[in-house]
Structure formats: C-alpha cells, structure tokens
Automatic annotation (TrEMBL):
It comes from Microbacterium plantarum. Residues 192-291 form the M23ase beta-sheet core domain. Residues 1-38 are annotated as: Disordered. It holds the Pfam family Peptidase_M23. This is M23 family metallopeptidase. Keywords: Hydrolase, Membrane, Transmembrane, Transmembrane helix. The chain crosses the membrane at residues 59-81.
C-alpha cells in the first residue's frame, strides 16, 4: 500500500515525549493571529506612555527656566540699585519732592518752637499742685468777698434808718465844703501815705467836697476797701477827691453820677488796709497830690 504525503498542509510535529509542549506548539501554529494582536496592543501602550512623558517635559522645563530667571532677578536688581544709587544720576529727597509737586521740611529749617505756658511756671507735679491750690484759694476768697458785698448791700438797702438818721446834704455853702461835719483827730502820717486820715466813728456821714462827677465807686479798692472818687472843675482847675475805707454797703453813688458840693457819698468805716475807723481823703490838683487839710483850710467855705 502506497503512503500518501500532502506537502501543502503544514502539520506540526508532535513531541511524543512531552505532550504539554507539543500542545502549546500546536496551538501556536494553529492561532498565530492572537499572539500578534497581543504584541500590537503592548506596543501601542508603550508608545502612548512615551508620548505622555514627552508632553510633560516642556512644562517642567518652563517652570525650571522661570525659577532660574526669578533667582537671577532677585540677586541682580538690588545690586543694580546699589550701583545706580552711587552714580551721579541719583535723585535726592528734595528732587523727588519737587517732581511730585510736594514740599518737605529739612532739619536745617526746623527751629525750636516756643511753648506758650500762659504764665504757668510750675514744672513738677508738686509745683503744679501748689499752683492749682493757690488759684483755687484765690477764687474762693474772691467769691467770699463778692458774697459779703452782696449781703452788705442787701442789708443797707433794706435798712429804714439810713435816710432818716443820716443827712443827705451837709450844712453850709460855697464851692468847696468839708467832707465831715466832725471828726476826733488826725491820723499819724507815714512815708508813702498820700492822703489825710480823719479819725471818726463808724457810720459818720461823708460828703463831696465840691460839685463833680463820680469816676470810681467800688466795694473792693486796692487797699482802699470801699471807696468813691469824684472829678471836679473848680474855677477852671481840675481837682479829684478820693474817699476811702467806707463801711460796707454805704456807698450812695455810682460811676457816672453827678454830685453837688456837700452831697452824701457814704459812711466812715475801716475796710481795706485800715486800723480803726477813719476817712482817708486824697486831693489831687492838676495831677499833683496835695495835703488835704491844708487845701481845705485854703478853699473850704
């Protein structure tokens, strides 16, 4: 019997000694397409991975370049500024201010400012407290004096014996009259004393020595206490008469009042710097102080 051999069919040989190997070889020969497809898929994945890595590289490169540029700028700019600051083109503060249309005050234009202390010379806390205490005491004294004056004025205005017991006009006639109808004696003169003291009892009426106008009337004169001052024109001569140390609340005239010779002005007291009740009378003729008693002797009617 003849043996049939078909050369067109490629039949794999079978390894009889290893059936498993022979089976894989047979399957590989029978299914070559599946193996090829597996290799193609792996190739595609590798190519895609390489493309992805290539796309990331430019971003990283850009970031790296930017970081390097920033570092160079950080180092270079201050150095450039330092070099520029020492050059002849460096601008001063005055030039910058001029370019900005502003003005600055330089040290050479600043002078010591005077401190207005308003007369307050205390510098330590103790001095300041002492000064404030003195001011408070002075204010309290002024208020007390004002209250006393107010009370005295009220008492005098409410008294009914004032107009009944005190004559409003002194007896006599003439251009010049004596200020008191009677007095006990003269006070002892002393250096700097510009008037004449007439010792009299409290409440003794005081009259104007001549016609005139009241130019001062106060309850708190400087040393005079309660006083009245009258300006006169006697036969063309300017004369002023001042009546000091009157009793509280007894002034009968105010500034601007016109008075006649012998008109009541007030009553004797001891206000101000006075020792004992008396009238302090000052006579000034054409600006010169006169001895009041001598002037009255020469002029009183």
């Amino acid at each position: 019997m003849a043996e049939h051999n078909d050369s067109s069919v490629d039949v794999p040989e079978v390894d009889a000694t290893n059936p498993e190997r022979s089976g894989r070889a047979l399957r590989a020969r029978r299914f070559p397409t599946a193996k090829k497809q597996t290799r193609d898929v792996a190739t595609i994945e590798n190519r895609a991975s390489r493309r992805s890595r290539r796309r990331v590289h430019p971003v990283r490169s850009t970031f790296t370049v930017a970081a390097v540029v920033g570092l160079v700028a950080t180092v270079a700019i201050p150095a450039f500024a330092a070099v520029r600051g020492t050059s002849a083109d460096a601008m001063t503060l005055q030039q910058v201010a001029a370019n900005n249309a502003q003005s600055i005050v330089v040290a050479s234009e600043v002078g010591p400012a005077s401190l207005d202390r308003s007369g307050f010379t205390a510098t330590t806390p103790e001095e300041i407290k002492k000064k404030k205490d003195e001011e408070a005491a002075a204010k309290a004294a002024a208020e007390a004096l004002a209250n006393r004056i107010s009370a005295s004025s009220s008492t005098a205005s409410s008294s009914t014996s004032y107009s009944q017991s005190i004559p409003l006009v002194a007896p006599g006639s003439g251009l010049v009259r004596r200020p008191l109808m009677s007095f006990n004696n003269f006070g002892t003169p002393y250096a700097g004393h510009r008037g004449t003291d007439y010792m009299a009892d409290r409440g003794t009426p005081i009259y104007s020595v001549a016609d005139g106008t009241v130019v001062a009337s106060s309850e708190s004169g400087p040393g005079w206490g309660v006083y009245v001052k009258v300006a006169h024109n006697i036969n063309g001569t300017n004369v002023t008469s001042l009546y000091a140390h009157m009793d509280w609340g007894t002034r009968a005239v105010q500034v601007g009042d016109t008075v006649s010779a012998g008109q009541l002005l007030g009553q004797v007291g001891d206000t101000g710097r006075a020792f004992g009740t008396h009238l302090h009378l000052e006579i000034v003729v054409d600006g010169a102080y006169m001895n009041a008693e001598s002037w009255l002797v020469a002029n009183a009617g």
